[in-house]
Design goal:
Blueprint: H1 3-15, E1 59-64, E2 69-76, E3 95-98, E4 108-113, E5 137-142, E6 147-159, H2 165-169, E7 175-187, E8 190-201
Parallel strand pairs: 2-3, 4-7
Antiparallel strand pairs: 1-2, 1-5, 3-4, 5-6, 6-8, 7-8
Length: 203
């Protein structure tokens, strides 16, 4: 990761996020929100075998067989207000990789965002993300022809105001993946919660 990319990634980790799923509503939670009591740090959870880190290569597709996701992946940066961009609201919804995070398979947390709903167009690409369970498979197709295969270690639904920035964006010593969307109760301006999937590279 270049020094510029790393600075942008740290900015998002400490001033962050998220995400206007289907409503154009952006929320910026507190920077160092604590994780809910009783939760464990996903990057330390056992159960998934380790795999060697892959070379840097931009993700172009994402498959999550357990919930029927098979989507192209676009690149996302930072919006003018310093929050992470989200994919546009379109009929052909797709996921977006945050380009200041590691690419899938590199050491560190690679971050991919998607909508749960896309306004008048209906369901978003991550509509069923909360249904994933530990052990489910995620496949990121990379530009160099490699497929990075991850295994889900945990799925969490958190109040946006308590978004666990450190756990999502913080440094880890192995290749990991975060899939993020909105969830919980829907209001007139969006959703109250975020759904976060934590996964580890296994193939």
């Amino acid at each position: 990761m270049t020094s510029l990319s790393r600075r942008a990634f740290v900015t998002a980790a400490t001033a962050t996020l998220l995400t206007g799923c289907g409503g154009g509503h952006t929320t910026t939670p507190a920077a160092n929100s604590a994780a809910p009591q009783g939760s464990s740090t996903p990057s330390r959870q056992p159960g998934a075998k380790k795999a060697h880190a892959l070379a840097r290569s931009v993700p172009v597709t994402l498959r999550v067989p357990a919930i029927g996701v098979d989507t192209p992946v676009m690149q996302l940066g930072l919006a003018a207000d310093g929050t992470v961009q989200v994919p546009p609201i379109t009929a052909h919804d797709r996921a977006g990789w945050y380009r200041h995070s590691p690419t899938p398979g590199q050491t560190g947390p690679s971050v991919i965002l998607g909508h749960v709903t896309v306004g008048a167009y209906g369901d978003g690409v991550f509509r069923h993300l909360a249904k994933l369970r530990a052990g489910d498979r995620i496949e990121a197709g990379l530009e160099n022809g490699t497929t990075a295969t991850f295994t889900v270690t945990s799925v969490r639904t958190v109040v946006k105001a308590e978004f666990p920035s450190d756990e999502v964006y913080g440094n880890v010593d192995r290749p990991e993946l975060r899939l993020i969307t909105c969830g919980g109760t829907r209001t007139g301006t969006g959703y109250l919660d975020n759904v976060i999937v934590f996964a580890t590279l296994t193939g």
